[in-house]
Amino acid sequence: MRLAPRPTPSKFVLAVLVPTATWFIIRPLVEPPPPLPALHASLGFSLLAFLWTLYLVPALGQTFVKAGLKGRDLLKVYNDDIPESMGLICASIYILLLILFIPFPFSHFMSLSTSEGLAKQEFPHFQLSVYLSSILSILMATLLGFLDDVFDIRWRHKVPIPIIASIPLLMVYYAESGNTNVVVPLPVRFLFGTLINLGPLYYVYMALLSTFATNSINIIAGINGSEVSQALIIAMSVVLNDLLYLPWSTSYRFRLPLYLLGGEADIDVGGVWSAGMAHGSRQLVERHLLSLYFMLPLVGVCLGFLYHNWYPARAFPGDTLCYVTGMAFAVVGIQAHFSKTLLLFFIPQIFNFVLSCPQLFGLVPCPRHRVPRFDANTNLLHPSKAMFERPPSRLSTVVLRLFAAFGLTELTTHPKSGTILEVTNLTILNFFLLRIGPMSEKRLTQTLIATQISGSLLAFIVRYGLAWLVYDGDRR
Amino acid sequence: MRLAPRPTPSKFVLAVLVPTATWFIIRPLVEPPPPLPALHASLGFSLLAFLWTLYLVPALGQTFVKAGLKGRDLLKVYNDDIPESMGLICASIYILLLILFIPFPFSHFMSLSTSEGLAKQEFPHFQLSVYLSSILSILMATLLGFLDDVFDIRWRHKVPIPIIASIPLLMVYYAESGNTNVVVPLPVRFLFGTLINLGPLYYVYMALLSTFATNSINIIAGINGSEVSQALIIAMSVVLNDLLYLPWSTSYRFRLPLYLLGGEADIDVGGVWSAGMAHGSRQLVERHLLSLYFMLPLVGVCLGFLYHNWYPARAFPGDTLCYVTGMAFAVVGIQAHFSKTLLLFFIPQIFNFVLSCPQLFGLVPCPRHRVPRFDANTNLLHPSKAMFERPPSRLSTVVLRLFAAFGLTELTTHPKSGTILEVTNLTILNFFLLRIGPMSEKRLTQTLIATQISGSLLAFIVRYGLAWLVYDGDRR
């Protein structure tokens, strides 16, 4: 082995972070309880998720290599075996912590504690079922993702796999008589009314959401850090969105030790936030808390894994990571009822999907790998190309010329007849290389991350700035 | 390949069984609903579990072999690759059907239907959480079992794995403030009182139960059909025990078309059963129904797999099967509160465990495989032996001489000094060969099955014939 595992941080980091995580976890048990006790514990668990992933990934790498779960990095000059399917470790840590977290939001002890603004008197049976069915779906996605890695299932066969993993979600949704109404956008309300009951179609929508969330991340792969950084930024965007709905202002005070600086004893932060976007709706707050319980540890796990998956990668995620993160996003979108907002955080993925359609649906030849081409001399990536064995059909030609006109692809045509001979592969990564020019792999990942962040900013603008154009305040 | 997959039954069987299963599943939706609608559906799903396993195991065998999940049959003359870890298929079918079954016992539609004697008015949130956490534990056991197969985890490391899989069970049990009291047996009641609250110890007991149920089956392995036949008979014993508690007599009528034979229109079966062992306790009936929902499809899956695992085996279960079945038994024992009765069905496993102790705890050398020795000339199995590299300690000698005196093992001693040189491996399989004499592998499996059945008969005698000696009617 020439490529040693990336070194883990010094013991000093552990000595600071482990007690911090422990304090967050036991804080809800100390009197007086904080306003949102389970959220404190969730933060502690998320920190643990980060640390466990950070230390376990390098520790178990060689075990994976020995079991045959290994791969070569195609965009490097070296041939080292790199452990593959390490998303399994992320998934295991994530799920184990989600399970260990159960008693915090769901136990008689906790539910009887008076959390200001959220005093629960009855045991939250309904939420517990929802929570358990969500973990069940995520665990199924893990198992199926790992089977995909072991059995190397063909692309066409694996697209519908997330639908199977979403069955627990759908079944419990049905058993609990979940809401299947959608609010109709203003412009078409004269046709359908304000609310429309989709009935069974709603279940189809939920199943497709999980498929989309999984595969749309999985399809932007091939360069170090691409999958996990997409997941990380989407998860952080969801967290940010959830935070808007928490009852910050009701009586939450940030105690800053300002008196040390000669100022006042404490300062009331958040008072200007009004009651958050939830406007006092306990149901909305609970939904977004549920979403946070799933997203915070996911952020922890993704951060820890990104450290080892960062260029030059010491560990590969495998399909497992995409299945788990994709299912986690689908779960919160469905259970916390903000699937449309969620989809807004997938703008780069939607762009990539639309761009890929000609290759996915057979209009353009689709090679097994569409990753950019690596030039070992310059260490730069160039757009990779797909070659037409036979002249393209008229439909293909029209679509490709249209794509080329918008700068989405570059065509190589026959100098005399003008027939398309080659086309750059239709992925967002090749699109970046085409528009910005050849760049290093690390730079390409950074570009992807920047795009994902810009996409999320746009999403917030659309969601909170423009949504009034198509929706009124009726947001069920 | 010399060894072709065992042929699946003719299409005629399918043509009869598939409509039968479908009818059982849709019967609860037809008016008037049967007395226990979900049980009808469970029977239908169990039949499907049997059929799916029967057809999918041979269909996917080569996929497993190609992925490296294969093994040699050590007790045969041939060297063919046999697909290994096929318990994964059983587990997947089992869990998928358990999930698809959710709406039958747990949905507003079903819970509002008046089932005679069991009219439910409120939505059974509590039972749904219990059911989901059980599936979660079984699914974790599946994933961990499969990881064990892929990574080939060492024996000492894998013993505590079922404890991890039982965490969802324990967490939800805690969240729901599950009962941690045990009824004290009459002879020691003067010391502890009638009820004793074990508190945290009860959780330790539950975790150990799952470890025992898993490993005690896994340890009796190595001959074709041994693991799955143990699981099958234990599952059928639990089913039989559950049936005793159903409200057969309240108004359940078997409509037999006796008028076709000139008899009466229908006959009242079960009227003589009185109200079952539940004596009208709705809680007891619900617990045993829950147990049936888990055990009936397990019987289906085990039967289907036994067909392909029967001598000479075309498919091996791997550790996955033992993890799944063991966890399923622990789940019903814990959730339906009959763990002591459950342990009575493990009499052969307990015997094997006690017998194995000197080897498990290092008093006697323990070779990697303790399977009987195969004589290729006679096709018979003989007891295998462990050899002492150094003279045994005094404790080992005493224990082994005691075991030998009871006919549990056979010692080879030094003709002069009397030092023990060799000892037959301390397993129930070698014990059979020692007491009954060398026999074929098939005969040995049959002997194991006969012993398991006798053990269950003894269990019923102890549970319903002798339990009054140590317990009164107070059976919480």
TrEMBL record, chains A, B:
The answer on whether this UniProt entry bears the keyword Cytoplasm reads: no
Question: Where can this protein be found?
Answer: Endoplasmic reticulum membrane
InterPro entries from the UniProt entry = Glycosyl_transferase_4 (IPR000715), GPT (IPR033895)
Q: What Enzyme Commission number(s) does the record list for this chain? A: 2.7.8.15
Membrane-spanning residues:
12-30, 42-65, 86-106, 126-147, 159-175, 290-308, 320-338, 344-364, 448-471
Tell me which Gene Ontology terms the entry assigns under biological process: dolichol-linked oligosaccharide biosynthetic process
Membrane topology, as annotated, equals: Multi-pass membrane protein
**Protein species of origin:** Rickenella mellea
Catalyzed chemical reaction(s): a di-trans,poly-cis-dolichyl phosphate + UDP-N-acetyl-alpha-D-glucosamine = an N-acetyl-alpha-D-glucosaminyl-diphospho-di-trans,poly-cis-dolichol + UMP
**Would the keyword Endoplasmic reticulum turn up in this protein's UniProt record?**
yes
First-listed, main subcellular location of the protein, grouped into a coarse class: endoplasmic reticulum
Q: Name one GO cellular component term.
A: endoplasmic reticulum membrane
Instruction: Name a GO molecular-function annotation.
Output: metal ion binding
Q: Name one Pfam family in it.
A: Glycos_transf_4
UniProt keywords (A-Z) are: Endoplasmic reticulum, Glycosyltransferase, Magnesium, Membrane, Metal-binding, Transferase, Transmembrane, Transmembrane helix
State its cofactor: Mg(2+)
> Member of which family?
Belongs to the glycosyltransferase 4 family.
Q: In which pathway does it act?
A: Protein modification; protein glycosylation
**Function, please?**
UDP-N-acetylglucosamine--dolichyl-phosphate N-acetylglucosaminephosphotransferase that operates in the biosynthetic pathway of dolichol-linked oligosaccharides, the glycan precursors employed in protein asparagine (N)-glycosylation. The assembly of dolichol-linked oligosaccharides begins on the cytosolic side of the endoplasmic reticulum membrane and finishes in its lumen. The sequential addition of sugars to dolichol pyrophosphate produces dolichol-linked oligosaccharides containing fourteen sugars, including two GlcNAcs, nine mannoses and three glucoses.
Indicate what this protein is called per its UniProt record. Answer: UDP-N-acetylglucosamine--dolichyl-phosphate N-acetylglucosaminephosphotransferase
